[in-house]
Amino acid sequence: MTTEPASLHAHDEGEEGLAFAPRYDAAGLVTCVATDAASGEVLMVAHMNEEALRRTIETGDAWYYSRSRKALWRKGETSGHTQRVVEMRMDCDQDAVWIRVTQAGGACHTGRRSCFYRAVANEAGGAKLVFVDADKTFDPAAVYK
Amino acid sequence: MTTEPASLHAHDEGEEGLAFAPRYDAAGLVTCVATDAASGEVLMVAHMNEEALRRTIETGDAWYYSRSRKALWRKGETSGHTQRVVEMRMDCDQDAVWIRVTQAGGACHTGRRSCFYRAVANEAGGAKLVFVDADKTFDPAAVYK
Questions:
Q1: Which structural domain range is residue A57 located in?
Q2: Tens-place pLDDT, residues B41-98
Q3: Where do the Phosphoribosyl-AMP cyclohydrolase domain residues begin and end (chains A, B) (predicted)?
Q4: Residue A36 dihedral angles phi and psi, to the nearest 5°
Q5: Residue B71 belongs to some domain of the structure
């Protein structure tokens, strides 16, 4: 006999339980959002596979999986602009990860602190982009050779 | 003759230009991160198709595309927990959107303010989840009937 309510099925376990059970998509990936632990700003959105997640958890450095290069990479391994993880969280259905990080240099390969340096403006002729917080914090040509 | 530098190819246009040109994946979606405009907390990660993006920009309410239900939905249309968009930003390669929102009630269908109510702890036997900010702000059974 069990005292569990009938509603405590597998879905609830994933959402209300404490088992770390990432739900990878068909490509074996979860989405990861990295925010600046100090400012709260969203720095980037990228993907992690099982190995990237494992290495991130074990080392405290952010590791990602590049879909275009089909390769595991440690953030900052070329640029030196590493991300130290202050906290990692999973979302309700465990297919997205949020990491709060201490970002060295800038997160974006264009030289900005964040990849989100353009806002969307709704104008008469349709949506347009507007630069915001778009100052470059480093010279990408000097960093990525 | 053009005065454009040779490096100003299509890739740079997407990253350095001001044309709103979302890059949808094979399923026609971009990833969207919603954060609380007041606290900076990440509320949820979801997806938008072209129609959801258009409606969000035009109405100022967050619209998403549900991959599981294969349907467009306005956040809060069932629960009343709408998201008013304070600012929308695109990332460098325009395949991810960040919206800062004023969230009514809670964003998560489990009753929490945010979907990210569990942190990942690295323990000897492997990763475990730990509840953080997990108090329910509404009763999902009363809201989703």
A1: 21-110
A2: 999 999 999 999 999 999 999 999 999 899 999 999 999 999 999 999 999 999 999 9
A3: 44-117
A4: -75, 120
A5: yes
Q: Which segments of chain A does DSSP mark as H helices, in order? A: 10-16, 50-59, 140-143
- Which residue, among B116, B121, B103, B109, has the nearest Cα to A31 in the 3D structure? B116
Does a structural domain hold residue B5?
no
Question: How large is the ipTM?
Answer: 0.90
Q: Count the domains in chain B.
A: 1
Residue B80 CA to chain centroid, in angstroms? 18
Torsion from C-alpha of B22, A121, B44, B91, nearest 10 degrees? 50
CA pair distance A141, A110, nearest whole angstrom: 9
A80-123 pLDDT, tens digit each? 999 999 999 999 999 999 999 999 999 999 999 999 999 999 99
The encoded tokens of residue A74 equal 């440690």
Residue A4 lies in a domain: no
B118, exposed or middle or buried, with CB in 10 Å at 0-12, 13-18, 19+? buried
Q: Report if residue B40 sits inside a domain.
A: yes
Joined tokens for residue A65: 């999986």
Q: Which residues of B79-91 are buried (b: 16+ CB within 10 A; e: fewer)?
A: bebbbbbeebbbb
A20/B130 CB distance under 8 A: no
Residue (of B85, B7, B27) closest to A110 by Cα position: B7
Question: How distant, in Å, are the alpha carbons of A85, A102, A106, B138 from that of A75?
Answer: 11, 12, 11, 38
Q: How far is A115 from chain B (nearest CA, A)?
A: 5
CATH number of the domain bearing residue A83: 3.10.20.810
**Residue from A98, A99, A123, A144 whose CB has the most chain B CBs within 10 Å, to mutate:** A98
Which residue in A132, A130, A96 sits closest to A113, CA to CA? A132
Give the minimum alpha-carbon distance from B65 to chain A in angstroms, rounded to a whole number.
16
